[in-house]
Amino acid sequence: MALIMMRSVATTRRGFFKLKRSSSGIRAFSSLLTSPPSKAVVYERHGPADAVTRVIEMEGVEVKEKDVCVKMMAAPINPSDINRIEGVYPVRPPLPAIGGYEGVGEVLSVGSAVKHLSPGDWVIPSPPSSGTWQTYIVKEESVWHKISKDSPIEYAATITVNPLTALRMLQDFVTLNSGDCIVQNGATSIVGQCIIQLARHRGIHSINIIRDRVGSDEAKEMLKRLGADEVFTESQLEVKNIKGLLVSLSSIHSLWLII
């Protein structure tokens, strides 16, 4: 019985790799379809990432009828990823866990009941979906969102965390209209850079504050190329009437502060 099962799995895996190379959108009908073996970055306790993480080899897992097997193409390392490993982030997966919360992958195979995804599609996981630091992921179709293959891979891999945070900061708290102005600190962060670009796209002016540090002049120029209207270091804003200064710079009706 064990020998027959192993042969069945081996045959299915050969079919699996044929499916990967096929351009006809073949779907999986065998319940014995499995993902290829995978490498993953795992941690079994919280602590410094370089001390508690390790790379392991994982056996293939069954691709059930509603599942999608995705080959990860790129996954970033965010500060929030490190914070989860350290155990200081408010939301943490149960241990042991695989690192990573965003990324982009290519659909490798789909279960027989999957309706909206096909082999070859590019997908990103919907948040919160941990475990992107592995080579193959098997999860239900509802977890995955199809994206355009025209998307630069580094943009697709990082769309979930920082750009969406920036979008929510701009639209979830107050109603901002074209001609309004926002002030933000930490403007060189990825969230800050996204806010600058989204604000410019919506006709919203941005006044940006960065830390005093070596290379601050270059950082100012970089942010202005992204669309920042004004960029100041913290020391430049050491004045008594800071609100008056900012309003005089913006010449607008509404001024909002993002911290």
TrEMBL record:
Catalysis performed (reactions): a 2,3-saturated acyl-[ACP] + NADP(+) = a (2E)-enoyl-[ACP] + NADPH + H(+)
GO biological process: fatty acid biosynthetic process
Xref: InterPro entries: ADH-like_N, ER, GroES-like_sf, Mito_Enoyl-ACP_Reductase
Signal peptide boundaries: none
EC numbers, comma separated: 1.3.1.104
CC terms in the record's Gene Ontology section: mitochondrion
Top-level lineage group: Eukaryota
Protein name: enoyl-[acyl-carrier-protein] reductase
